[in-house]
């Protein structure tokens, strides 16, 4: 039932149908450069962890695709197909709307982080803007739960750097993103300090 392939590095994502609904199937094919036994363990662990974190994020009120099925043998997750375009494309197409979207990205990241969840790859390519304008987070393969302040600070710093390099020239939107993020974090001051410390670390190493 596979159709057009969407993209993928470690994983491949294809559009399919599941019980009559449009679905996205994310699978992790075997990697021949890894020992087979180790490869299987890595793929299974990543599939399981991605699905678990996605579920936890959803429970914390962050929009993520609904999971329909997990196949630990094939190492694949079948999930709701989210209509829309990535936030990266949305910003490239309409830079004048970047600030509004940036504010929403900041609020979404704060909601995730305040539930102790790190995404691991908070780039605008891992966010889908639905036709109604709502933001959906995807690709939790590098995520973690029970995150400490340090993990959260690193996740926020990655988001800041990724936005800065993917959307060079949109400094005002980046400021809006970070301001929205910090003001939506319950412990905004502690995160602000941690973020500053991490930025400085990068400066001297
Ligand atoms: N549920 C979904 N609905 C619609 N499109 C999706 C969905 N999940 C993924 N995609 C599309 O597939 C692309 C790749 O998905 P994803 O970011 O999860 O994989 P990846 O970056 O290749 O994975 P990984 O970082 O785990 O190796 C996304 O940028 C998006 O365009
Ligand atoms: Mg991705």
Mean pLDDT across every amino acid position:
94
Oligomer: single chain
Q: Assign the structural class, choosing from mainly alpha, mainly beta, alpha/beta, alpha+beta, or little secondary structure.
A: alpha+beta
Query: What's the CATH H-level superfamily name of the largest domain?
Result: Transferase(Phosphotransferase) domain 1
**CATH domain topology of the largest domain:** Transferase(Phosphotransferase), domain 1
- The CATH architecture term of the largest domain is Orthogonal Bundle
Task: Walk me through the structure.
There is one protein chain. This protein is of the alpha+beta class and 205 residues long. The protein has two domains: 5-80, Phosphorylase Kinase, domain 1; 85-204, Orthogonal Bundle (Transferase(Phosphotransferase), domain 1). Helix content is 47%, strand content 17%. The strands form two sheets. The chain has a five-stranded antiparallel beta sheet, with helices on one face. A three-stranded antiparallel beta sheet has the order 6-7-8. Helix 3 packs parallel to helix 5 (171-184), helix 4 (149-166) packs across helix 6 and helix 5 crosses helix 6 (188-204). Mean pLDDT is 94; it is low at 1-8. The structure holds adenosine-5'-triphosphate and magnesium ion. Adenosine-5'-triphosphate binds next to strand 1, strand 3 and strand 5.
Keywords:
binds adenosine-5'-triphosphate, alpha+beta, 205 residues, three-stranded antiparallel β-sheet, single chain, Phosphorylase Kinase, domain 1, 6 helices, disordered N terminus, 2 domains
């Amino acid at each position: 039932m596979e159709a057009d392939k969407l993209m993928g590095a470690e994983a491949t994502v294809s559009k399919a149908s599941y019980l009559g609904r449009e679905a996205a199937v994310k699978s992790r094919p075997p990697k021949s450069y890894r020992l087979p036994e180790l490869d299987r363990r890595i793929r299974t662990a990543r599939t399981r962890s991605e699905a678990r974190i996605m579920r936890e994020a959803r429970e914390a009120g962050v929009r993520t695709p609904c999971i329909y099925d997990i196949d630990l043998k094939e190492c694949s997750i079948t999930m709701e197909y989210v209509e829309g375009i990535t936030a990266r494309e949305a910003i490239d197409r309409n830079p004048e709307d970047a600030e509004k979207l940036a504010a929403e990205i900041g609020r979404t990241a704060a909601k995730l982080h305040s539930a102790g969840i790190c995404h691991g790859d908070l780039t605008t390519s891992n966010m889908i803007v639905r036709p109604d304008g709502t933001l959906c987070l995807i690709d939790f393969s590098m995520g973690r739960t029970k995150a400490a302040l340090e993990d959260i600070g690193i996740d926020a710093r990655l988001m800041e750097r990724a936005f800065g390099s993917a959307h060079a020239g949109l400094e005002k939107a980046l400021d809006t993103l970070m301001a929205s993020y910090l003001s939506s974090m319950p412990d905004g001051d502690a995160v602000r300090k941690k973020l500053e410390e991490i930025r400085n670390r990068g400066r001297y190493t």
